[in-house]
């Protein structure tokens, strides 16, 4: 689409011409989504970003001041929206990490064990697991390995690791069922 056509569509859009809006949408939507996806690495978020742009374009149609080509304006607006979203995500993630760190500093492990000897009962329950199951459970929960890493380390399939973890968690829940009200999920059953 050339600049004259863009300018004509823009003038029609300012006068609430739905056909002009539809033409702009159909002309630029796909390429704007691809452009946004390159920034965000997420096709769904890219589409949401472009849809938001078009909603705003329609809502502000009467007072639109575009001093360059429509195409340039649209791509620039998408770029800005993507960069703002990335920045917002970084700030949100950083804040969440700070909250998590503060929580972990303020809460010491003994706060989780509201009943004397619970940590010993947890250790006993883990030790009661069959050897391979116990080994897989400890690699997952104590060393933080992912199932694929455990499978590679032990020469097992990921499905076998998943099965052993499921059985281990079931057995531990059963052995510790009397303590289910005491936040042990934060200690033993995290990531399950």
What would you note in describing this structure?
By secondary structure, this protein is an all-alpha fold. The protein has two domains: 3-104, RNA polymerase sigma factor, region 2, helix turn helix motif (Rna Polymerase Sigma Factor, Chain: A); 110-187, Winged helix-like DNA-binding domain superfamily/Winged helix DNA-binding domain (Arc Repressor Mutant, subunit A), CATH 1.10.10.10. The protein is built from nine helices and no strands. It has helices spanning 3-14, 18-40, 43-59, 70-106, 118-127, 131-141, 147-154, 158-175, 184-187. Helix 2 runs antiparallel to helix 3 (43-59) and helix 2 (18-40) crosses helix 4 (70-106). The two termini are 54 Å apart.
The total beta strand count reads 0
Number of helix segments? 9
In the predicted model, the low-confidence regions spanning at least 5 consecutive residues are 183-192
**Strand and helix order:** HHHHHHHHH
Domain count: the total is: 2
Distance between the termini: 54 Å
- How would you state the average pLDDT, rounded? 82
Structural class: mainly alpha
Global outline: elongated
Helical coverage, percent range: over 70%
How much beta, percentage-wise?
under 5%
Assigned CATH class of the largest domain: Mainly Alpha
Largest sheet: none
CATH fold category name of the largest domain: Rna Polymerase Sigma Factor, Chain: A
- Radius of gyration, whole Å: 28 Å
What is the CATH superfamily classification of the largest domain?
RNA polymerase sigma factor, region 2, helix turn helix motif
Q: What is the level-2 CATH architecture name of the largest domain?
A: Orthogonal Bundle
């Amino acid at each position: 689409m050339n600049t004259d056509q863009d300018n004509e569509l823009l003038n029609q859009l300012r006068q609430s011409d739905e056909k002009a809006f539809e033409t702009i949408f159909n002309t630029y939507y796909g390429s704007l989504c691809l452009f946004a996806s390159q920034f965000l690495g997420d096709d769904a978020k890219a589409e949401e970003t472009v849809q938001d742009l078009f909603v705003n374009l329609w809502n502000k149609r009467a007072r639109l001041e575009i001093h360059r080509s429509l195409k340039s304006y649209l791509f620039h607006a998408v770029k800005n929206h993507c960069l703002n979203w990335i920045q917002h995500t970084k700030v949100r993630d950083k804040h969440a990490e700070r909250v998590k760190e503060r929580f972990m500093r303020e809460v010491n492990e003994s706060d989780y064990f509201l009943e004397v000897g619970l940590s010993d009962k947890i250790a006993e329950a883990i030790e009661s697991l069959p050897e391979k199951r116990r080994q897989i459970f400890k690699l997952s929960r104590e060393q933080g390995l992912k199932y694929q890493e455990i499978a590679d380390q032990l020469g097992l399939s990921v499905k076998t690791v998943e099965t052993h973890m499921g059985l281990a968690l079931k057995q531990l829940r059963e052995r510790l069922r009397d303590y289910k009200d005491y936040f042990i999920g934060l200690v033993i059953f995290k990531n399950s």
